[in-house]
Amino acid sequence: MPGLGTAEHGLRQGVSSVRGRLVLLTVSLLIPALLAMGFLLASADRESRGRLYQQLVTTGRALNGAVDRQAATGVSVAETLATDQALIDGDWAAFHARARRAMERRSGWIVVADANGQQVINTLVPYGNPLPRIQRTREETEAFSAGRNKVSDLLNGPVAGKPVITVGTPITVKGQFYVLSYVVESASFASVFRQQRVPDSWVATLLDNKQRVIVRSRLNEKFTGAQASADMTENLRHSTEGVNKSVSLEGVPTMVAYTRSPQTGWTLVVAIPRKELASTVNRSVAVGTGVFLLLLVLGVWLSLVYSRRINRDMRRLVQDASAIGRGETLRPAPRDSLEEIAAVHAALLTASDELKAREERQGVMINELNHRVKNTLATVQALARQTFAKVDGAPLSVFTDRLIALSGAHDLLTRTGWREADMAALVAASLGAHTDRVDRAGPTVALAPHTAVGLSMVFHELATNSAKYGALSVPNGRAALTWRLDPVTDVLSFVWRDIGGPPVTPPTAPGFGTRLIESSIRREQKGQARFDFQPEGLVFEASLPLPEAVRWSNPV
């Protein structure tokens, strides 16, 4: 029956179109929607509570993250001041003045105490005033002894006379152990609640590792230092994050979300009264039901209105895709296109441009790769020639160690796409097995690839020389490497110093390592280098200008 076959084909073709599918989808929603209404009313309450619980947890995590960031700022302040030259030199008066100036725009202050807890400096009072002794906890003592920073729990500041939090970092001044601490009032953490806009009816509380209140968004002065409620303590004993019923310190039944920070160990608790929770959920159910019915009716109408327009724009996308395959340039999307269709068109246009640009970049990348390989092979060739031709009896291990130091610099540069290498990471990679016996200090410096490759060999040779003849050749010997960067001239200078090694006598003739170091600094880096063979140990000083721009880079 031709008529029947034609009708079936037309029906199948209509259902397969975008317009037919939209209409069919809308109609299919009507029947399940009516059946779902009863289930919706029953499940809306549970879903609303779940969303509110999730909002509590999300708020707690956001507040906890903000607290961690504020604590991290304190760590940064302490670590930055720990590198102050006046502090390193033991000039307490000068450091006190500089620390007070540094704290003028901050809410905290600086305290330096010795190994016994006796305060040496406290910027809250003039320098020279008598200062009390600090009683450190076992956790703080263990952390400082291991060379780690430590954020304290709630403390009573003996000078400030208020509850405080300290961020301490261990330092060494003229061979003596001290702890430099950045101290803030515990109430300063209340700014986190204001920044995150905690609702007025909610109560946010920050607890330390002993479940004592550090700060609270409501009645803070009254409850600072108070112990968390028994049920809250029980919750924290079983998990580090969750949502449970509780009773606030004011005795109000609440629903609380809590999350513990892995950095500080503190717990952020967000509580909402259960009475308010019930009213919020009921209101959400009513609003959700009304919106659902309205959207259902609106969806039927919009499916009929927009189906024709979607079909038209989809046909244009098919034409655009065909044009890309033919290598043709796409025309701009019509102004009346739907936002999603316009986004797909823009993506196709970007893909077309990227395909052309990628062909050009491939040529550039191949040339750049050839250049780098040639440079690397030339460096390896020079190392082989210098090691095996000019050094009598040089073992294969010496050549291998130098190649490993060079490859360490290459690995660092590869992680950044050969754009730069961090000075501290380069030093650690170049020292190899001697890393733990070399004290290192200096600011963050980004080195260009050419500079990083050259300096990796310099640091390796210094460590190797010290391991053979200098301080690292004896069990108790150590070495120190410090560097600094002139912010005006961009000149990088560093000093290597052997400490506690055997007596040193100047060599009669420079060895290969000395020649390699001088060649790398003076010829390749256009810098200055000086060896000072002092009886108590070698002192090597060098300075070199950093290039204004990275010499090698990958196309992006």
Task: Sum this structure up briefly.
This protein has 556 residues and is an alpha+beta fold. Helix content is 52%, strand content 19%.
Can you tell me about this structure?
It catalyses: ATP + protein L-histidine = ADP + protein N-phospho-L-histidine. It is an enzyme of class 2 (transferase). Its EC number is 2.7.13.3. Its main location: membrane. With 556 residues, this protein is of the alpha+beta class. It has a domain at 390-545: Heat Shock Protein 90, CATH 3.30.565. The chain is 52% helix and 19% strand. It has 14 helices and 18 strands. The strands form four sheets. Strands 1, 2, 3, 4, 5 and 6 form a six-stranded antiparallel beta sheet that branches. Strands 8-7-11-10-9 form a five-stranded antiparallel beta sheet, with helices on both faces. The radius of gyration is 34 Å and the shape is flat. Residues 549-556 have low confidence and may be disordered.
Strand content: 15-25%
Oligomer: single chain
Structural class: alpha+beta
| Chain-averaged pLDDT | 78
Helix/strand layout:
Elements lengths: L1 H15 L1 H65 L2 H4 L3 H11 L6 E6 L4 E4 L15 H8 L4 E2 L3 E2 L6 E11 L2 E10 L4 H6 L7 E5 L5 E4 L3 H4 L6 H9 L2 E7 L5 E8 L6 E7 H52 L13 H51 L6 H20 L5 E2 H9 L6 E4 L4 E2 L1 H21 L8 E8 L5 E9 L12 H13 L3 E7 L2 E9 L11
Parallel strand pairs: 13-15
Antiparallel strand pairs: 1-2, 1-6, 3-5, 4-5, 5-6, 7-8, 7-11, 9-10, 10-11, 12-14, 15-16, 16-18, 17-18
Helix pairs in contact: 2-9, 9-10, 10-11, 11-12, 11-13, 12-13, 13-14
Keywords: ATP-binding, Kinase, Membrane, Nucleotide-binding, Phosphoprotein, Transferase, Transmembrane, Transmembrane helix
Organism: Caulobacter vibrioides
GO biological process, one term: signal transduction
